């Protein structure tokens, strides 16, 4: 069984406050993009999970979110057979694109199908939040408003057709540290999430792009100016807007024209500012638990 684990960007990201358990209340607009890792899953007679990946530096034991997700379901349902999982990573690691979370989401969907556990998408999402705040969304996919710690999801209409340029500098930002370093009292004007939702409902790409904002961005750019440089380059080269995704450091630019995006991608590659440059578009899901479409 082959599954695609799709990456996300945050068209808008606001943090409202800190909860007693240390997690933060968020309000974010999530969007799946056409960039994915591949999971190849097969049953084995020998019990247990054997995970292999093409990246030597990511763990293949319980620390890998794929392992965690598969183990959680297999233990709950007393699955006696085993699983062999081959994970091919394309989504940059620790990039703010939910690579690990999406791999976990694909594992939930894959194990459910492989062993005929009969869980609905909702039942999978209830379990998924135990692996990570973004994992339920990665099962849902498409365009959504995420609230709570990211697990309270409301589907939104598809966003207008557009092109997405990804630029990730060769630095790593820890999500936990990004949340810890966020000075909630110091936030002047919060991102206009309601305005963004309105623009999406009106199918207005230009209004949508102009309202895209990430509350983490100013603080992280102060620490890593290269993120600001990538943003500026994308906007100079025709992006309607370029914004950091999640806790960073990836920047995405939204374009209304594929050729313009391709030219911007060439400039970004030439500049040497980004380690990963990837030109793609948004992905709108078309119903059902379709993690392999
Ligand atoms: C910032 C966002 C935006 O989409 O994405 P990424 O940058 O990870 O892609 C998410 O909120 C990341 O969600 P996710 O990566 O699933 O978080 P988790 O693994 O559950 O948590 C990692 C750490 O982030 C902090 N955390 C996460 C989510 C949240 N709502 N509040 C938090 O404070 C916690 O300190 C937690 O220990
Ligand atoms: N399947 C996975 N893919 C990538 N990283 C993983 C995975 N499972 C666990 N990790 C660990 O999680 C950390 C961040 O993962 P990732 O999901 O790529 O970040 P982000 O949420 O910022 O997109 C990495 O340090 C990595 O070691």
In short:
The chain has ten helices and eleven strands. The chain is α+β, with helices and mostly antiparallel strands and 293 residues long. It folds into two domains: 154 residues, Ribosomal Protein S5, domain 2, CATH 3.30.230.10; 119 residues, 2-Layer Sandwich (Alpha-Beta Plaits).
Topology of this protein?
Blueprint lengths: L1 E17 L5 E21 L3 E6 L11 H12 L5 E7 L10 H16 L6 H8 L6 H6 L2 E5 L4 E4 L7 E6 L6 H7 L11 H9 L3 H6 L2 E2 L2 H7 L1 H12 L4 E4 L6 E5 L2 H14 L4 E6 L12
Parallel strand pairs: 1-8, 3-4
Antiparallel strand pairs: 1-2, 2-4, 2-5, 5-6, 7-10, 7-11, 9-10
Helix pairs in contact: 1-2, 8-9
The structure holds 4-diphosphocytidyl-2-C-methyl-D-erythritol 2-phosphate (SUD) and adenosine-5'-diphosphate.
GO biological process, one term: isopentenyl diphosphate biosynthetic process, methylerythritol 4-phosphate pathway
Pfam family, one: GHMP_kinases_N
GO molecular function: 4-(cytidine 5'-diphospho)-2-C-methyl-D-erythritol kinase activity; ATP binding
